[in-house]
Design brief:
Structural class: alpha+beta
Largest sheet: 5 strands, antiparallel
Number of helices: 16
Distance between the termini: 51 Å
Oligomer: single chain
Bound molecules: glutamic acid
């Protein structure tokens, strides 16, 4: 059997209407783009990439570079230092508005040009050449192949970068950047001129979906906390002045660019990229928006679409009988809601001397909240007189310090844990 995802994606592509919108023309080189090009790719957190349509066509990354540069600034300087210079509030203004927050003098967010230019300047390197070199290495690592700057786009945009120069000079006067504004705009413009394909972007987006680890190679490129910050800002500010509309209809953190690309990142599931140069009145790829609306609806990808609540994480319980310990067989991912169901099951355990065994064999992952809650339950059970043992053959709960001097022992199977006491 052939996995049908590519066929399905091709079908949706064929159904998106291609005539509406205009190709961006404020950068002369972009006006020359073939308006009929249309490609999309989907990269999953399991490491599969499904490309469809004009997937080999290279186009300049433009504003889709902004989340990745923001990620690098965060990795270089830390969340707090970056936040001191760039806020995270949606602006509702056009992407190239010459404006700063009245109260603090900061750019409103890193997805509009003012914030993106400031984020570029925060990347360590000291000069635009070095910064661009580092960004090019970083984007190339994320894409899994060597990328390059499109010199024609760069020259063309440099000749018409007056507005970005005005923004950079304004940033310099308020201390939002410390470097030479002309040099910073040069670097920012080169960053926007890096060529990519939808296949590259899908893989880059899939790494953001996978908390910073490349699902294809397994290499970690970003810290999960940095990814979370970048995706939060994409969710609220990524789609120019249509961010609210996009989030309610599509519900996927995203970033678009004037060359006609859009990336979308559904945390824990998938990264999606599309390229079609005709733009709608907000500057977003017209067919790209249609495609995302269809994918979100057909595949239930809206972030706010919740299922009926997580099922109990307790798969089975076997009550203890004085001879044998009580065994709680847990399952799935253990986050706040699942851990709460575990706490309720354990709360029914009568006080007494019997050992309680928590079997994590069928648990995939325990997040920080889940871990705290399970360990606190173990501590309380222990105070009630129950020795607690874990079965954790895959080491999903490596840190087993429950506090009050209690460190849980983990066994490879239930029989070994039952002998605990
Ligand atoms: N390089 C473009 C600019 O700063 C990027 C704009 C965009 O894609 O939104 O004008």
């Amino acid at each position: 059997m052939k996995v049908p995802i590519e066929d399905w994606l091709a079908e949706v592509l064929g159904q998106c209407d291609g005539d509406s919108g205009e190709v961006a023309d404020y950068i002369p080189e972009l006006a020359r783009a073939d308006p009929d090009r249309f490609g999309a790719a989907l990269g999953t957190v399991r490491g599969h990439v499904y490309p469809v349509g004009h997937t080999e066509v290279e186009f300049s990354i433009q504003s889709i570079s902004k989340p990745f540069t923001y990620a690098m600034a965060l990795a270089d300087r830390g969340l707090e230092a970056v936040h001191e210079k760039i806020d995270v509030e949606p602006s509702g203004d056009a992407f190239n508005e010459i404006s700063l927050e009245a109260s603090t003098g900061r750019p409103r967010n890193p997805m509009i040009n003012a914030g993106a230019i400031a984020a570029h300047a925060l990347v360590e390197g000291g000069s635009s050449e070095r910064r661009v070199e580092r960004l090019l290495d970083f984007y190339s690592d994320l894409a899994g192949r060597r990328l390059h700057v499109d010199e024609d786009v760069f020259e063309s945009e440099t000749g018409s970068a007056h507005r970005n120069l005005a923004i950079a000079h304004m940033l310099r006067t308020v201390g939002a950047i410390d470097d030479d504004p002309v040099d910073v705009v040069r670097g920012y413009t080169r960053q926007c001129s890096i060529d990519v394909t939808v296949t590259d972007l899908a893989r880059m987006a899939a790494t953001l979906a996978n908390a910073g680890a490349d699902p294809v190679s397994g290499s970690r490129h970003l810290d999960p906390a940095v990814c979370r910050q970048v995706l939060s800002v994409m969710a609220s500010c990524g789609m120019y002045d249509a961010a609210g509309d996009w989030f309610s209809s599509v519900g996927i953190p995203a970033k678009s660019g004037v060359s006609g690309g859009i990336i979308g990142v559904l945390p824990g599931q998938v990264g999606i990229a599309v390229f079609s140069p005709r733009l709608d009145e907000h500057g977003n790829s017209a067919r790209g928006v249609q495609l995302f609306e269809r994918l979100s609806r057909d595949m239930g990808l809206h972030l706010m679409e919740s299922s009926q609540g997580s099922r109990s994480a307790v798969r089975q319980e076997r009550a203890g009988d004085g001879e044998r310990p009580s065994v709680y067989e847990l399952q799935g991912d253990v986050r706040f809601a699942e851990a709460e169901s575990i706490l309720h099951a354990l709360a029914e355990e009568p006080e007494g001397p019997g050992t309680v065994v928590l079997d994590l064999t069928r648990v995939y992952e325990v997040n920080a909240a889940g871990r705290r809650m399970v360990l606190e339950a173990a501590r309380r059970l222990n105070l009630d007189g129950h020795p607690v043992a874990l079965v954790d053959p895959d080491g999903v709960l490596p840190d087993r310090d429950a506090g009050d001097g209690l460190t849980l022992v983990a066994y490879d199977d239930v029989d070994a844990a039952c002998a605990h006491g």
